[in-house]
Design brief:
This protein is of the alpha/beta class. The protein contains 3 helices and 3 strands; from the N terminus they run βαβαβα. 30% of the residues lie in helices and 16% in strands. The longest helix is centred in the middle third of the chain and has 16 residues.
């Protein structure tokens, strides 16, 4: 059985000070997060990110913006030997559409577990 840790993105991986973080230029890593993630990885935990991205539903940014930001995040973490096993995001917002993937619902967790 594999071990995994599920992490939020905004406020955990990056500082989350911007209301919406959807470009590499806005993405500021939290201090020592790469070191912490590396320790988890060295202890055989898969690193999985679960994040709400409601700005997509609101038309503030696109899925492609999020994917570009995630690619940047992954490439920067790889410089420290950190490999992200999966990133799952909810593009919905309750004011726009109802779903079972928006945290605190468990849809993204179930999807990640099924694919891990």
């Amino acid at each position: 059985m594999d071990k995994a840790v599920f992490l939020d993105r905004d406020g955990v991986i990056n500082d989350g000070s911007a209301y919406y973080t959807y470009s590499p230029e806005q993405f500021i890593f939290n201090k020592d997060i790469a070191v912490a993630l590396k320790l988890l990885q060295e202890n055989l935990f898969k690193l999985i990110i679960i994040t709400n991205q409601s700005g997509i539903a609101k038309g503030v940014y696109t899925t492609q913006d999020v994917e570009k930001t995630h690619n940047y995040m992954k490439s920067e973490l790889q410089k420290y030997g950190v490999v992200i096993s999966g990133i799952y995001f909810c593009p919905h917002h309750p004011e726009v559409s109802i779903c079972n993937c928006r945290k605190p619902q468990n849809g993204l967790l179930l999807e990640a577990i099924a694919q891990t």
